[in-house]
Amino acid sequence: xxxxxxxxxxxxxxxxxxxxxxxxxxxxxxxxxxxxxxxxxxxxxxxxxxxxxxxxxxxxxxxxxxxxxxxxxxxxxxxxxxxxxxxxxxxxxxxxxxxxxxxxxxxxxxxxxxxxxxxxxxxxxxxxxxxxxxxxxxxxxxxxxxxxxxxxxxxxxxxxxxxxxxxxxxxxxxxxxxxxxxxxxxxxxxxxxxxxxxxxxxxxxxxxxxxxxxxxxxxxxxxxxxxxxxxxxxxxxxxx
Amino acid sequence: xxxxxxxxxxxxxxxxxxxxxxxxxxxxxxxxxxxxxxxxxxxxxxxxxxxxxxxxxxxxxxxxxxxxxxxxxxxxxxxxxxxxxxxxxxxxxxxxxxxxxxxxxxxxxxxxxxxxxxxxxxxxxxxxxxxxxxxxxxxxxxxxxxxxxxxxxxxxxxxxxxxxxxxxxxxxxxxxxxxxxxxxxxxxxxxxxxxxxxxxxxxxxxxxxxxxxxxxxxxxxxxxxxxxxxxxxxxxxxxxxxxxxxxxxxxxxxxxxxxxxxxxxxxxxxxxxxxxxxxxxxxxxxxxxxxxxxxxxxxxxxxxxxxxxxxxxxxxxxxxxxxxxxxxxxxxxxxxxxxxxxxxxxxxxxxxxxxxxxxxxxxxxxxxxxxxxxxxxxxxxxxxxxxxxxxxx
Lengths: 240, 393
Known about the structure:
Chain B: Keywords: Signal. The structure holds two protein chains of two kinds. By secondary structure, chain A is an all-alpha fold.
């Protein structure tokens, strides 16, 4: 670790000067924390956009779904697209329904179970994409301050070594080293605070969207089970 | 995700650039030169008690004596004045110089000297008269003088031919006296004891008195006559002298030994102390009375000097409650006079003993005490210092 020339650099305490004065480890910590901050804000922007879009799609789909439009028709229009969210669950359930009827389903209970499975799988995949990378926000939020503190401790250590070398305890000699070291903690906090806030916000939003998907899946499952009953009931009667 | 990452990077770069340009070095911390102010806790008695000042000067916020002119500073002086030695006597008034002039005029010494002598002689006369009174009763005063006059005249010259006094008759009393000296046989004269006095030429003063001259005549006769007769004559003469002496003594009754002493003391003595004052005179007492108590910080300074030399051994059992009280007498240089008294109370017996002896050592080692205000010497001439040794542990 190189000795920092404290007394000479004491005149300039602007941000850039502080960064340039810092030791190698402190610089590394600062750069890492800067990267974390960039990543945090990238995620924040990304998630904000994604969630806004997802919410809009859900609203739109529910509107279409409950508009009284034929489910077959809806399925035909949606099947060709890449679907997300509620639409994806709907398409997965309809596909399973279609496949089962094309091959001639024997048991209504088996069919019901298969449809539920298909919907669960799709829902899990959807919620995974919603919550993707939220954990990294949590990590930055909790570890950021510690990383910054580590940089500070190393920086103060270095500056104390320099003080011991300069044999002066003058505040003008001590202050710049400590200011530079504290910059690391400051950057750590700058990265961590938005990360924590964003994590709380987005995990809450993801929970709400998941609940909405589950609710839709249950309702659709109920509708399909009614349909199965209606379609499979006449057959034994007709057969009889 | 890529888009948002790019956005984030862009925003960060932008913010950092903004911070670099706007958040330059923070303004320099201009620390004003603040002078340290010593704060002293002063006892209220310094204000409420009589302070040294001038009794005739107008009132002012701070009592101050009449300013002195002598710039020479004298250590530890308590009394105001221009003196070089600190005396308790009040400064002598400026009329004094006149007295000195009178005393200093030595040229006419001869004249005044006899005057002084005459006075004492007269006083002695009075003494004689005291002894004399019993005698007069016996004597028929008128008779003896008449017959004797002739005889005495011839005799006096015999014994006192050398004496010029007889010519000046006034010295009547004295002429006989010298004779008495020569003639031990005469007890009354010896009693008078005026032996040296007559020689002193007090005669001129007494000259003017005519009656005395007659008496003088009578006396010589007395001396020649029998003891009794002489005694009676002496008594008669004494009576007359007594009158004269009384009149003289009544004039001089305001005799004052101090004045005499003052006259005799020809040294250029000045009264007054040696304490200097530069302030404008303001109302106050002759001396500061109760105001001179050591202030808190002065007491702490004294205590600190002792504590510095006091190595309290830690770990003495039962040392928690021990209170040490040191009573010592100090001289003006801060040296201890006699044996400092150390009392200990509270705590265990052994701890008390240990701390007591260590306190005594500390007190001895810290003498002489520095920094005690000399003008408050009466406050710390005998000082009591209390310690809680557990604070030093």
